[in-house]
Design brief:
Elements (H helix, E strand, L loop, with lengths): L25 H18 L8 H16 L4 H13 L7 E3 L10 E2 L2 E8 L2 E8 L11 E5 L2 E2 H8 L9 H10 L9 E7 L5 E7 L8 E2 L9 E5 L4 E6 L6 H13 L4 E5 L8 H8 L7 E2 L3 E5 L3 H7 L18 H11 L4 E3 L5 E2 L11 E5 L6 H8 L6 E5 L9 E5 L5 E5 L2 E3 L15 E2 L4 H5 L4 H13 L2
Helix pairs in contact: 1-2, 2-3, 6-7, 7-10, 8-9
């Protein structure tokens, strides 16, 4: 069973600027840096995609840099920037609980930002500012720099992501993230094209009401009828086994459906097994074909032997050493940190006595469809009655190794590579929809869900 963190960034506490903890000694800072570097070198499954010279040189540079950081916050920022060089969404460095930057609160202002049309669009404010900063306004400049330039220099380099589009999403949503007391000068273009400049300083916002109001928290599973024949089910997480029993309780209703929409756009993952249990009811197959998995293999003696060989030696047997070319290749690759253990591939038998729901089905996916939810899509890949609608998925899955860092923070390193059964890669690319639907600012302002609308249209055509 694969358990992963489904929330990449969690910010809940507030640190006062000027009172940032400074608890780590220079030795502890070097140890934490070295611990992360070591675990990556030993366990990171995508190390073969990393420029090792760049990686090692940056480590050597950081030995001096981290010792001179002014406080624990600056130290962890350096670790995050180092981690981002690996470009993996399941390899991250997390702040200690004592250092949690603020995001949307600026005293009398509260501002929420999202990536819409590849622009930093304000999608929510505190209620008292809804006229001053209308929804749909765009942040066009931060601290004297065009927004994209500011992101490229000050935000994106600290984000660990497997895909460029998720980096863009996270960069925009966290565009103004900082410690309490940190100030940003921003230029905002309103929907009427008027430009205003605001000086925003992170401070707790006492006003509770926001506009538009927060939507109710999503349940593990949401269900509704789109019309008399099409049912909608949103599977919002595979972290809790409870969702399986919730789905089973819903079966009497779902059996009435002639068309089905399964929404995975809010599902950040959890356990692959949980999602597979639900998918069993949505297929007539007797077996599922899941992802193929590999991990790095390291045997110290083999690595030592491998240092005596060159790449040319792997082309033929070596009678003098009593080794086959396959053995030589294994030792050689291990000495280069590039030997992989392939997990035995086993199909997943479907044992289910209950009635199945095999009707035209649209699966909604998006940038937040991640990890175990992507594994769900791998299992569903060959289902002829299913179609994927929306945007590329998150593009990252795997089994992270978790470990502590000095000062109360922690990190994780991805140890397992998943691919389609035929070897196609989706980590770093995302699982692509069959029908791409990209929401626009007008869709947002008019509260439209174009992916859902497209799914309904598709199913209606199928049911005619």
């Amino acid at each position: 069973m694969k358990q992963v963190l489904t929330c990449l960034l969690f910010f809940s506490a507030f640190a006062s600027f000027g009172q940032v903890p400074n608890t780590l000694s220079p030795a502890e800072k070097v140890y934490g840096l070295s611990k992360f570097w070591q675990e990556v070198n030993y366990n990171f499954v995508y190390l073969n995609k990393v420029d090792r010279t760049m990686w090692d040189n940056r480590y050597k540079e950081l030995i001096t840099i981290v010792q001179n950081t002014k406080n624990d916050y600056e130290y962890y920022r350096e670790l995050q920037k180092f981690c981002s060089l690996l470009k993996d969404g399941h390899t991250n460095v997390y702040f200690p609980k004592t250092i949690q930057p603020m995001n949307s609160m600026f005293g009398e202002y509260r501002i929420f930002i999202e990536n819409i049309d590849n622009r930093a669009i304000i999608t929510r404010t505190n209620f008292s500012k809804k006229e001053e900063i209308p929804i749909g306004s765009e942040i066009i400049e931060v601290n004297g720099k065009p927004t994209q330039k500011y992101i490229d220099e000050n935000v994106a380099p600290y984000i660990s992501s497997s895909t460029d589009y998720v980096t863009k999403d996270l960069s925009i949503s966290g565009l103004l993230r900082g410690l309490a007391g940190e100030t940003y000068v921003v230029k905002i273009k309103k929907p009427d094209n008027k430009i205003v400049e605001l000086t925003l300083t992170h401070k707790l916002t006492e006003e509770k009401e926001v506009f538009p109001a927060f939507e109710p928290d999503k349940q593990l599973l949401d269900f509704k009828w789109v019309n008399k024949s099409i049912a909608y089910v949103s599977l919002n997480s595979f972290e809790h086994e409870k969702i399986d029993s919730m789905f089973i309780e819903l079966l009497p209703e779902l059996y009435k459906a002639k068309g089905l929409i399964v929404d995975l756009r809010y599902n950040g993952g959890g356990s692959t097994n949980i999602g597979r249990e639900i998918l069993k009811y949505l297929s007539n197959d007797t077996v599922f074909y899941g992802a193929r998995n590999v991990t790095r293999e390291h045997i110290a003696t083999y690595k030592a032997w491998g240092t005596f060989f060159t790449e040319k030696d792997t082309l033929s047997d070596n009678p003098q050493w009593g080794m086959t070319k396959q053995e030589i290749a294994k030792f050689y690759l291990m000495s280069k940190d590039n030997y992989y253990y392939k997990f035995p591939y086993e199909t997943e038998p479907i044992k289910l006595d209950a009635k199945r729901i095999v009707v035209p089905t649209a699966i909604l996916i998006g940038h937040n469809t991640a990890s175990a939810a992507e594994d769900f899509l791998i299992f569903a890949d060959n289902q002829k009655h299913m179609i994927k609608i929306g945007q590329n998925s998150f593009g990252s899955t795997g089994q992270p190794l978790m470990f502590d860092l000095p000062g109360g923070g922690f990190a994780r390193v991805c140890t397992k590579q998943d691919t389609y059964p035929d070897g196609r890669e989706f980590v770093g690319y995302g699982i692509k929809p069959d029908l791409e639907v990209i929401p626009t600012l007008n869709d947002y302002l008019n509260k439209k869900d174009p992916a859902l609308d497209r799914a309904i249209e598709h199913l209606k055509q199928k049911l005619r």
